[in-house]
Design brief:
The complex is a heterodimer of chains A (about 280) and B (about 250). Chain A is of the alpha/beta class and about 280 residues long. Helix content of chain A is about 35%, strand content about 25%. Chain B has about 250 residues and is α/β, with parallel strands linked by helices. Classes of the chains: A alpha/beta (about 280), B alpha/beta (about 250).
Chain lengths: ~280, ~250
């Protein structure tokens, strides 16, 4: 079976204000089947830019190049804006960090879900409404009818993020990109949302790219993890193998977290080597 | 010995919303005390009430045995108590250089020897003199938080209130800032009251902590008890479980 997504030598470069360019992503490559791939890194590592480039949401002033960027046999690098629009939200979907900013504040949650569905599939209003309600139920919202008519500011962060997941999955995407999907949520709510995401990705057999700064969280959720530093992948590890991470950056990232019941004063800090970014 | 901070049956209400109800804590001098809870639990409001940034409706706050009522605080109070906020992008004036930012508290309190004090403060937080004339946008998040800590320390306070001081920072930078905070606490014998949603951070930094929920204290425990899982309250147990990360169901 051919992979769902092939990325070879992906580069994203922004023009710098002082002239020259800043390379946010510098030659990232991976293939993705119907599996869960985590991308981990700190701010500025290029993890979000990688996800956005696949989605086709890179800012217009940036230059995106890749030897190959193919989704289900479609060459994304050469696809027209119209083709990419058709894919975006349809076969490729993206969940963003904070529902406060990523949902439309002046549209009810139900209407946003219906809009997504009807943009991509020729379904009647009534059918779209039914599917939106089913989707809200699938993300474990107790009273879908009520939430359907609410505005984003009327729901909690956890509820908003479930609505976001419902909106993104309603058109039945094959690839889901989740960029820090739970970082804005409280820890206990985080786990509920992850459980929902986990079940839906499994049941629907989607490919998932999970982008996060949290190495532990990602490795507990994904099959394998790419660790990014300064725009490059510095290490790939199977998620069960976190303790065997080889790259000093990955190891440093694991070590510097304070752990309950651990008595390490001072905490080990990362000694950033210039050669990691080379 | 009088407590460094004593909060008795404190209530805070914003119009009809009770952000804090009947909250009591005592923090000994030189202790590091943690406040843990999720958003809306009232943990930040408690710190803000101490420094007069939240409307107190009942109860009392005493610093060094001296009772503080209402929202007015004397200058002498702020020589003793300083606060570091969560977001180093929001808590530094964007049009002021580091030099100007650090001068402000000295000017407000009429303290001499600004030149030497500013240099020492920067040195203490591990920023070289080259940072002195930079603007906040010319620094990273971790460097900004160091400036915020320097600004709080320049008045030589006894009590430092820390509201999620590292939650806006990358993990590796968090470790550096936590180490810095422990260092200054040791050097100056400071008392810390630290708010965090991260149990790992709180147990690393604090000897005792309370968990809060819906504006109330639900449990008081030592970091050592938390580490061994000797937790009696159901909500604290839930937080503890959640902090261990995702476990696939079924």
């Amino acid at each position: 079976m051919s992979p769902l997504l092939v990325v070879e030598n992906l580069r994203v470069a922004y023009p710098a204000r002082a002239g020259g360019i800043i390379e946010a992503v510098r030659g990232v490559g991976f293939t993705l089947g119907r599996e869960r791939l985590g991308i981990v890194g700190e701010s500025g590592s290029g993890k979000s830019q990688t996800g956005r480039a696949i989605m086709g949401l890179t800012a217009p002033q940036a230059r995106v190049t890749a030897d190959r960027l193919a989704f289900a046999g479609i060459d994304l690098a050469r696809a027209s804006p119209r083709q990419r629009r058709a894919l975006r939200g349809g076969r490729i979907a993206m969940i963003l960090q904070d529902p406060k900013y990523s949902l439309d504040p002046v549209m009810t949650i139900g209407r946003q879900i219906v809009e997504t569905l009807r943009t991509h599939q020729p379904v009647s209003r009534a059918a779209a409404r039914r599917r939106a309600l089913d989707m809200l139920a699938a993300v474990q919202i107790d009273d879908p009818e009520r939430v359907f008519g609410l505005y984003p500011h009327e729901v909690s962060g956890g509820m908003g993020q479930r609505a976001m997941i419902a909106m993104m999955l309603v058109a039945g995407p094959e690839l889901l990109i989740a960029d820090e999907p739970t970082s804005a949520l409280d820890v206990t709510v985080q786990l509920e949302v992850l459980n929902i995401l986990d079940r839906l990705v499994r049941e629907r057999g989607m490919g998932l790219i999970f982008i996060s700064h949290d190495l532990r969280l990602v490795s507990s959720f994904c099959d394998r993890v790419l660790v990014m530093y300064a725009g490059r992948v510095v290490e790939e590890i199977a998620s069960g193998d976190l303790t065997h991470a080889r790259h000093p950056y990955t190891r440093g990232l694991l070590e510097c977290l304070p752990r309950i019941g651990d008595d390490r004063h001072p905490l080990p800090v990362l000694d950033r080597r210039p050669e990691w970014a080379a | 010995m009088t407590d460094a901070l004593r909060v008795d049956r404190l209530g805070v209400a914003f119009d009809h919303f009770h952000a804090l109800r009947d909250v009591s804590i005592r923090v000994a001098r030189g202790e590091s005390f943690g406040l843990v809870g999720e958003s809306g639990s009232g943990k930040s409001t408690l710190l803000r009430a101490v420094v007069g940034l939240a409307p107190i409706t009942s109860g009392s706050i005493a610093v060094d045995g001296e009772v503080r009522a209402g929202q007015r605080r004397s200058r002498a109070f702020f020589r003793k108590v300083q606060m570091v906020f969560q977001d180093p992008y929001g808590s530094l004036h964007p049009r002021q250089t580091v030099d100007r930012l650090l001068l402000e508290p000295l000017a407000v309190h009429g303290i001499d020897g600004a030149e030497a004090r500013i240099r020492r403060a920067l040195d203490e937080v591990g920023l070289g003199p080259s940072f002195r004339f930079r603007y906040p946008h010319q620094m990273s998040g971790g460097q900004r938080q160091r400036v915020a800590i320097a600004r709080a320390l320049i008045l030589e306070p006894e009590i430092l209130l820390l509201d999620e001081p590292t939650s806006a920072l990358d993990a590796s930078v968090q470790a550096e800032v936590l180490n810095l905070l422990e260092q200054v606490r040791r050097d100056r014998g400071l008392t810390f009251v630290m708010v965090s949603h991260d149990l790992g951070v709180v147990t690393h930094m604090c000897e005792r902590l309370v968990t809060m929920r819906h504006g109330r204290v639900v449990e008081m425990l030592t970091a050592a008890a938390l580490a061994t899982g000797a937790v009696s309250n159901a909500y604290t147990q839930e937080l503890l479980r959640a902090s261990k990360g995702f476990v696939r169901a079924g």
